[in-house]
Amino acid sequence: MDSNSNLNPPPPTYKDYYKILQLDYDATDHNIRLNYRKLALKWHPDKHKGDAAATSIFQEINEAYSVLSDPDKRLEYDLNGNYEIDKYTLREYLSRFKGMILTCNGLGMTQTSKCLAFLVDEN
C-alpha cells in the first residue's frame, strides 16, 4: 500500500436528494411528501426481504426526505449543494435556480406575500 494514499482521501460523495426522491428542484412540500410515500412503499425492506440493495435505497429515501421536508434543512442543503457542471444538464440547473430563488421555496419562504416582499426588497 502506498504511504501517500492516506494523505489525500477521496472527496465526499454528494447525494442529490431531489433525484433520489424523483423531484424537480422547485418541488412543493406536497410533492415531496407524495414522492416520499410512493418510493418508501416501493423500496420498504419488508417487501424486499434480505435484499441489502433495497434497504440501502430505502435509507437514502429516508435521508433525502428528512432534509427536503424540513424548511431549514432544505435551505441549507440548497445553498450548499453541489453545482458541478458535469453532473447536471442545463435544464436541471435552471430548474434548481427557479426552485431556489423564483419560488422562494428554496429560501425557506412558504408564504407568497412574504416571498414577493423579499424579492421586491432585493431589487
TrEMBL record:
Q: Which domain of life is it from?
A: Eukaryota
Which intervals hold domain J? 16-81
Instruction: Tell me the CDD domains matching this sequence.
Output: DnaJ
One annotated Gene Ontology cellular component of this protein: nucleus
InterPro entries attached to this UniProt entry = DnaJ_domain (IPR001623), DnaJ_domain_CS (IPR018253), J_dom_sf (IPR036869)
Q: Which SUPFAM superfamilies match?
A: Chaperone J-domain
Protein name according to UniProt: J domain-containing protein
